[in-house]
């Protein structure tokens, strides 16, 4: 292995390297969440708009596009979770050695909230994939509609059916509240890790984190709420 490659891999294995990877994979996931929300909001434009968008995602680059995105997202999500767990363990070990206290007492409140909200988001993603992608326990995969003379998946009808069941909508809204808490803290600490936050700019990045999280919360929750209120039907 060349010296450059060796020092690069030892950098990625270091605490700073891991933190940087958590921030970079977090940035990809943050952008995905925004893009996904904007796409979902097409439901307010009408059935054709969201069905056309769904059809585009499924067929781009002859169907390979969606798989490239899936693999990329999966790699980012796994790295983000595994490295966060490693960093938390390393921090706890270092702290309990230094102070002789139990790890739980030493774990900061915000890092515990981040782990809890992160694990809830993971549970939400598994439920969400079973609900709308794998169509486990439902027949949403059979919903079809004609669009510009072509038979396509009726994403509009699926989302309306999915959120018409109150417990599912409540679960989504609770998950979005936890996602909001995770994003609010995560986005501002991402700027910190990337070395962009100074004493003066830190409050600005904290505001950006809160504003971003609020936009995602309002945008995503508006969909189940609109379905429950029969505004979208
Ligand atoms: C109310 C909010 C949301 C709605 C209405 C929604 C809607 C959908 C729909 C309809 C699909 C299936 C697309 C298709 O089959 O064409 C989907 C897939 C997916 N969603 Fe969401 N989503 C929401 C929130 C989220 C959030 C917050 C995340 C991540 C944290 C997320 C992650 C995903 C992923 C990873 C997929 C799978 C994409 C694929 O592999 O096909 N979604 N979503």
Report on the architecture of this protein.
This protein has one domain: 3 helical TM bundles of succinate and fumarate reductases, CATH 1.20.1300. It is built from nine helices and two strands, in the order ααααααββααα. It has helices at 3-13, 15-40, 47-59, 64-99, 103-106, 109-133, 155-164, 166-193, 202-228, and strands spanning 144-147, 150-153. It has a two-stranded antiparallel ribbon. Strand 1 (144-147) and strand 2 form a beta hairpin. The longest helix is centred in the middle third of the chain and has 36 residues, at 64-99. The radius of gyration is 21 Å and the shape is globular. Bound molecules: protoporphyrin IX containing FE. Protoporphyrin IX containing FE (HEM) is lined by residues 33, 36, 40, 54, 57-58, 66, 70, 73, 121, 125, 128-129, 132-133, 155, 159, 172, 179, 220, 223-224. The site of protoporphyrin IX containing FE (HEM) has 22 residues, from helix 2, helix 3, helix 4, helix 6 and helix 7.
Topology at a glance:
Blueprint: H1 3-13, H2 15-40, H3 47-59, H4 64-99, H5 103-106, H6 109-133, E1 144-147, E2 150-153, H7 155-164, H8 166-193, H9 202-228
Antiparallel strand pairs: 1-2
Helix pairs in contact: 1-2, 2-4, 2-8, 2-9, 6-8, 7-9, 8-9
Bound molecules: protoporphyrin IX containing FE (HEM).
Residues 33, 36, 40, 54, 57-58, 66, 70, 73, 121, 125, 128-129, 132-133, 155, 159, 172, 179, 220, 223-224 line the site of protoporphyrin IX containing FE.
């Amino acid at each position: 292995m060349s010296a450059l490659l060796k020092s690069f891999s030892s950098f990625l294995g270091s605490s700073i390297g891991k933190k940087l990877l958590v921030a970079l994979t977090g940035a990809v996931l943050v952008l995905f969440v925004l893009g996904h929300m904007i796409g979902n909001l097409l439901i307010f434009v009408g059935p054709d708009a969201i069905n056309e968008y769904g059809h585009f995602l499924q067929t781009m680059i002859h169907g390979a596009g969606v798989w490239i995105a899936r693999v990329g997202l999966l790699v980012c999500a796994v790295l983000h979770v595994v490295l966060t767990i490693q960093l938390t363990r390393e921090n706890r070990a270092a702290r309990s050695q230094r102070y002789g206290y139990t790890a739980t007492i030493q774990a900061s409140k915000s890092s515990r909230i981040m782990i809890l909200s992160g694990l809830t988001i993971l549970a939400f993603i598994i439920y969400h994939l079973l609900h709308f992608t794998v169509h486990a326990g439902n027949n949403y995969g059979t919903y079809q509609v004609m669009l510009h003379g072509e038979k396509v998946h009726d994403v509009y009808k699926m989302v309306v059916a999915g959120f018409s069941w109150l417990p599912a909508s409540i679960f989504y809204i609770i998950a979005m509240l936890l996602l909001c808490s995770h994003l609010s803290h995560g986005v501002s600490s991402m700027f910190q890790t990337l070395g962009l936050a100074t004493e003066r700019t830190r409050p600005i990045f904290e505001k950006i984190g809160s504003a971003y999280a609020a936009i995602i919360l309002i945008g995503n929750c508006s969909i189940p709420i609109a379905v429950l209120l029969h505004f979208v039907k």
